[in-house]
Amino acid sequence: MELCVALDLPTMEENLALVEKIKAYPVWLKVGLRAYIRDGEPFIKALKKINPECKIFLDLKLYDIPNTMADAAESIMGLGVDMFNVHASAGKKAMTTVMQRLEKFESRPLVLAVTALTSFDEAEFGSVYGEKIALKADQFAKDTYEAGLDGVVCSVFESASIKSLTSDAFLTLTPGIRPFGEAAGDQQRVATVELAHQEKVDFIVVGRPIYQAEDPASVVAKILEKL
Ligand code: C5P
Hints:
The protein contains ten helices and eight strands. The protein is an alpha/beta fold. Strands 1-2-3-4-5-6-7-8 form an eight-stranded parallel beta barrel, surrounded by four helices. Residues 6, 8, 32, 59, 114, 117-118, 153, 175-176, 185, 187, 205-208 line the site of cytidine-5'-monophosphate.
């Protein structure tokens, strides 16, 4: 299991200061919407300057018509990131189009699809998708697998079921991790590192419990011990 640290701080300077503090640890860095919209490619370059070995997950959750998503995926190739994601609800055709577009490159980042956001509870999810979270997450995961992506973003509670439906090698990445019982914030389906491990999760994403801590490096070290 690998740890992805969400760089969700209010300014680029704060995000870079966080990365500087934790650069000794083998973690992935997650660049989300706020950081990318605000700081763009220079931020990605600055991360690599601090730690040339770091792996970067660009969490932009693409959702659009197939051709626009494939165009965006092709542009992402120029950034040199190691993983990015799309929404599975954009449909199997959109996901297949993205993967076909990346075929011409010798190597490509890992591509994941979001099944159900971990901030959804059953009631809100039902009002959007008209289905129970677990059922729909399984269906989205099957679509993602059949479209040739590398894995899904899901909650810890769906990981094992998704792997049994697809393959053990099909990756699961789970946000909503609260390693030491911290506040859930806006996350509804939170879990511990131990449960993530039991449920065969490949990547855990941790944001607030690390970047809001007084000593982020020691929290990272403690989480890595548990992996
Ligand atoms: O602070 P916290 O640990 O809740 O951060 C979780 C991170 O994972 C945030 O950056 C959030 O955007 C992201 N994320 C999520 N749920 C998803 C996909 C991504 O919480 N399904």
